[in-house]
Amino acid sequence: MTRTACPYCGVGCGVSAEPEGRRLTVQGDAEHPANFGRLCSKGSALGSTVGLEGRLLAPMIGERRVTWPEATNLVAKRFKDTIARHGPDSVAFYVSGQLLTEDYYAANKLMKGFIGSGNIDTNSRLCMASAVVAHKLAFGADLVPGCYEDLELADLVVFSGHNAAWTHPVLYRRMEAARARGQWHVVIDPRRTDTADGADLHLALAPQMDVRLWNGLLADLIRRGAVDRGYVAAHVAGFGDVEAELSQADQSPAAVAADCGVPLADLERFFRLFAETPRTVSLFSMGANQSAQGVAKGSAILNVHLATGRIGKPGACPFSITGQPNAMGGRETGGMATTLAGHMDFDDEARARVGRFWGAPRMTQGPGLKAVDMFDAVLDGKVKAIWVMATNPVVSLPNAGRVREALKACPFVVVSDCMAETDTAKYAHVRLPALAWGEKDGTVTNSERRISRQRRLFAPPGEARADWRIVADVATGMGFGDGFGWRMPAQVFREWARLTAYENTSRFLNLGPLTGITPEAYEDLEPVQWPVTAAGGTARLFTDGRYQTPDGKARMVPVAARGPAEAVNGAFPFALNTGRIRDHWHTMTRTGLAPELCRHAPEPYVEIHPADAGPLGIAEGTLTRVQTAHGEAVAVARVSDRQRPGSVFLPMHWTEAYAPSGRANPLVAPKVDPRSGQPEFKHTPARVRAYRETWRGFLLAREAWKPPAGADLVWRRTPQAACQLHEFAGRGDERERAAVQKALTRKSGDVLRFDDPATGSLREAWIDGDRLDRVIFFTIGGRLPPRDWLAELFEASALTAADRTALLIGRPPGRAVETGPTVCACRNVRTPRIEAAIAQGCATLDAIGEATGAGTSCGSCRPEIARLLAAAKGDVRHAA
Question: If we measure between CA atoms, which residue out of 211, 210, 218, 216 comes closest to residue 190?
């Protein structure tokens, strides 16, 4: 087995994988200290995502396949010409947390040291930028003080805008033993997520009231005498300024509870728990960061921990959890427009230091454009050439329609990606084939500062190349070959390690012992946390109370509570919140290839409270329009009191390839935090109404299908084991349905047909030899049959006579069809089977797992099973 690292979230799990041809057996690496053998649903399904379907395997100029020299020479020439005519700030790189550290380092070096612009930013701007700024303000550098062991040692864990049960399932499972011994969980989140359901206390605060809550907590700690005055005097500056800021508002628990929209008793319980529990870890993630006041939220959390001295100690720290597998590596190497490599800034001394190390001919003079500003500059014509690496900004950025227009208007767009077709790649003048996970060779850094090796499992397919090498080839074409002459990733890593140690007398980020690493030692590198010393890695920072500031003291930062950047109003009365779901990742480029990951949430949905849905005529499963001033989406309604009244939730994963009408980010306002530039994904004023389709249908086919041009349909595609399921709905008349039917009709093969024009019901099945090729069902107002049995027929080598007879009925003869939401994606176990097991006496998670198989593989579904179990027991605190 080859030991490598998972390419999904910031937990940075170790993976043991065994390739066989282009297939892959995957299991958790029992020796990796991030996960000790556990994997979530996404990591467990990695073997389903390593095929070559949809891959970009050769350089392309337009639609013409070309050689690598032709492609890189064109990119180099167009960038050189643009810089010569318009200056270095007329070009930009937009990169990704999916890159390895070596890739990040190469791209940053080229842009900031050789092109001479700061215009390189990463999609980590969308998830971690506010935490970065908060860390720098408090600690003097972007330093995460804790480690995962602290989550097991803590007596209280506070999840602030962090649905760990879905977004970081392995970390959540690491706390199971601590929960069993009595660890308390408090969740601060407007939504009742699976993490909130499993918590001892859920504070469902009003949108954007985080700072008010944390400021209120600090004021309460001061009143109680729970501030560690000795620690503050010795190690913290700014406490008096924060006290003065707190005095500007009524900080009584009653006033804080009223502003936050939470029960006073719950708030006081939280305040008391925090005050009385020295071993406290506060986890904060996207719910805190993705805000126009994300820096203030982060600073408010850090203030509380600094005031109580709960930092640098086992089981006590503030802990920012990263979203992507190498967001930390990008932050370290200068992948953000606002920092230089090695946690250095743009002061003259640091610029000169990095310039000397690189032998840079044209060192950047200062920060570059942050992500949202960068694409605004593209649309405005200030940036005339942009290179997008391993990310899909047409889907992931806020106000995504504007990003689409920017790339469409840009004179020169380069996309390097592993996939041939993405929403962004369609605007590329040049597409460069990059390696995918399983083919890459390099390092990543996880949320606890742990560097792990991501090792190659497969030979590079076609002409795909490592991202660092693509960058180096373009740099050479631009005349900078002397600075980019690496032949292997170990050489890139060694140079990066040397930079961290270069003239380093005070910077915490230091890989000194790795500066002379050999290719053999690089290949065998074990996971290690920085700072790296001769004795090994460093688990916790600030254990001695010293910080990376001129006087060695941390800084508490005064922050004022304020409302949302854009308030709801009569035209847009709802607050739209967007985010991730359990089994998908970002824009589904990888997870969309795994049918098992499409079971739990097979289609875009909008979650809405019953009190809001009823007056709007929206019921469970109703197609629903969500509109903002920036765009519109149509998704299936999930009516649930887990959603706060007045707010709606829309997942962000779907793209044009899977559900063009269900894309969330075109709706998001491009509001950003003024200091970090991180967008506000958690609050955009919206309105909601029923879609009111006139007809519905579905298609099961062996190949992916798209509606005919001009068809005004809502549709989505969900991969199945042996076919593709397409659901569609329209608001047109018979002519619209006829046009869709014509587009679906095959020219050959046997066809079974049932057509009732009076009711608008149409059912057709095409059979190629003895195998099912496609099935279509249309209806105006009637019910459509379940899809699962029909999808299973595509796996059969030959249809039976009974199958043929039942095809147009849509149900198997002689047996019931199990329906209901899928809970366990790995074992394909649905809600009814779990509820039946509970009714038959299964009273624990393990008993349910033994009876049904649910929760016995990766365990990502265990929180949801626990919720079903609690509901059956009448535990309203944890029930859905």
Answer: 210
**128-166 confidence digits (pLDDT tens):** 999 999 999 999 999 999 999 999 999 999 999 999 999
Instruction: Name the pTM for this structure.
Output: 0.96
CA of residue 165 relative to chain centroid, distance: 14
Tokens of 677: 């530039």
Measure Cα distances from 345 to 96, 140, 340, 825 in Å.
Answer: 20, 11, 5, 45
On the question of pLDDT at 871 being above 90, the answer is: no
Burial code (b: 16+ CB inside 10 Å, e: under 16) for 731-748 equals: ebeeebbebbeeebeeee
* Beta-ladder partners of 637: 606
What is the DSSP track for 753-770? Answer: EEEETTTTEEEEEEEETT
Bond prior to 531 in cis (omega within 30° of 0): yes
Gap between the Cα atoms of 686 and 330, Å rounded: 34
Please tell me the predicted confidence (pLDDT) of residue 813.
Answer: 81
State how far the Cα of 713 lies from the Cα of 715, in Å rounded to an integer.
6
DSSP symbols for 671-712: -B-TTT--B--S-EEEEEEE---SEEEEEEESS---PPTT--
**Confidence grade of residue 877 (pLDDT, cut at 50, 70, 90):** very low
Q: How far is CA 779 from the centre of its chain?
A: 37
Q: What is the CA radius of gyration of the chain?
A: 27
CA separation for the pair 441, 434 (Å, rounded): 12
Q: How far separated are the first and last CA of the chain, in Å rounded?
A: 41
Residue where the block lists tokens 């960068």: 374
Across 484-643, the runs of DSSP E, i.e. the strands, are: 528-529, 554-555, 574-579, 605-608, 623-627, 632-639
Angle (CA) 776 778 784, round 5°: 95
β-pair partners for 626: 633, 688
φ/ψ of 250, rounded to 5, equals: -70, 110
Task: Please state, as a whole number, how many other Cβ atoms lie within 10 Å of the Cβ of residue 93.
Answer: 27
Query: Which amino acid belongs to residue 506?
Result: S
Is 397 in contact with 665 (CB distance < 8 Å)? yes
Q: Report the DSSP beta bridge partners of residue 762.
A: 755, 778
HSE on the CB side for 641, CA within 13 Å? Answer: 6
Task: Quote the pLDDT of residue 707.
Answer: 84
Which of 93, 109, 133, 629 minimizes the C-alpha distance to 377? 93
- What one-letter code names the amino acid at 590? R
Cα 211 to Cα 301: distance, rounded to the nearest angstrom? 8
The three-class DSSP label of residue 252 is: coil
Q: Letter for the amino acid at 454?
A: Q
pLDDT digits (tens, 9 = 90+) for 561-576: 998 889 999 999 999 9
Cα 552 to its chain centre, rounded Å, is 35
Give the position of tokens 């409302």: 563
What are residue 186's phi and psi, to 5 degrees?
-120, 130
What's the mean per-residue pLDDT of the chain? 95
Say if residues 697 and 631 touch (Cβ distance below 8 Å): no
Kindly tell me the burial class for residue 847, based on how many C-beta atoms sit within 10 Å of its own C-beta (0-12, 13-18, 19 or more): middle
Longest dimension (CA), the chain: 84
Please give the structure tokens belonging to residue 145.
């003080």
Closest CA to 107 of 368, 475, 426, 376: 475
Query: Closest Cα to residue 152, out of 169, 177, 170?
Result: 177
| Proportion of the chain above pLDDT 70, given as a percent | 99
Contact 14, 35 (CB under 8 A): yes
Give, in order, the Cα–Cα distances in Å from 431 to each of 67, 107, 555, 855.
Answer: 12, 17, 46, 41
Q: How far is CA 363 from CA 75, 354, 485, in A?
A: 21, 8, 19
**Burial class, 508, CB count within 10 angstroms (exposed 0-12 / middle 13-18 / buried 19+):** buried
As given in the structure block, the two tokens for residue 577 are 């919140």
Provide CB contacts within 8 A for 738, sequence distance 6+: none
